[in-house]
Amino acid sequence: MNNSYAALAVTLAIQALVSMASFTVPVLAPVALPDLGGSLALVGLFVALIYLGAMISSLLSGSWILRFGAIRVSQVCLLLCGAGLAIAAGGQLWCLVISALALGAGYGPVTPASSHILARTTPRHLMGFMFSLKQTGVPIGGVLAGMLVPSLVGLAGWHGALLAVALACAMMALVAQCVREALDDDRSQSPAPRRDPFKPLRLIFAMPRMRNLALCSLLFGAMQLCLTTYLVSYLTEDYGLALVTAGVILALTQGAGVVGRLLWGWVADHWLEPRRLLPLLALLMAISSLLTAAFTQSWPLSLVAAVSMLFGATAIGWNGVYLAEVARLAPTGTAGQYTGGTLFFTYFGVVAGPPLFAGVTHFSHSLASGYLLFGGLMLAIALLLWRFAGAPAPRCDTG
């Protein structure tokens, strides 16, 4: 227990750097794509490839964590993300394909690894807050990308910005070595037996409450990535903001996500259980998405920022509630395995969401139509989740 805050600090920092790496290319896309000869639709495909890689690596991560240790797996993830950004700096369209897959391979296992560490080091009565605080690393990474990447582009060009973030990932991998022995002391000292990669999926479907969380995360993940992937492009192309100003709005959105994660984690622990809180968050996401679709240049910038922050507080803020609940339900010592299995569904939604958004906007010639579509879909999901919430919660024996 004495290591709980040290574990939180290192997992939060790793999560933030990996998140920043995944946001970097979408943030600088308006500048880089003209040089590459591509359209904004490529942003959605790039993000989809990241999460396709993350789907696979998260599903396999449980056995890697047990064999090599969660910190060692996290270090490899940081290096993969750095390599992915360095490859993207090559300046060719084919480089983006390899870059996205490398980023995805690095992104997928980070959350299962951190859940494994925190489940071991965090007192049960603090799990909701600590997991939510750790998950603020994702929007913090978005804040860093929104605030720093446009400035790095101005100083060193978009190639230099990619290399700078890649270097930061490599440096964090070195820093994590300082705590590796202390936090990886539970790793296996013998070769792991051959494992069934689909076992986490079977375990999840055998536990109804875990299954419901996983399926819910599929839809929420799609909404989250459609917000963060296209917001900068939408604000520059449709609303008419400068890249740096749009980056500030993204940073505010991600900052609201940080606050939202902590707030919703507290609400889920003390006031409204997750199966009743998630429908409320879905409704707020739907309202925010529909309002975003209605942006015109007649809207004052302050109102645009306020709507974007509400969007971020919900579409980004839900994640901590979800992961803390997964860790609570998972049998002792299996939080990483169950988290990796549930994230398979989350990332599937992320893979499907941005390309669908891109297809709709390509044919309509308007990014607003994508937010309109997803706002309508999320409204329908909110109504379904309210119906599911009315059923008695099954009692889950986690051993």
TrEMBL record:
All residue ranges annotated as the Major facilitator superfamily (MFS) profile domain in the record: 7-393
Keyword annotations: Membrane, Transmembrane, Transmembrane helix
Highest taxon listed in the record's lineage: Bacteria
InterPro entries the UniProt entry points to: MFS, MFS-Transporter, MFS_dom, MFS_trans_sf
Record's keyword annotation contains Secreted: no
Molecular function in Gene Ontology: transmembrane transporter activity
Record-annotated membrane-spanning stretches: 45-66, 78-103, 212-233, 239-264, 276-295, 301-323, 335-357, 363-386
Keyword Transmembrane helix: yes
Name listed for the protein in its UniProt record: Predicted arabinose efflux permease, MFS family
The species this protein was found in: Pseudomonas straminea
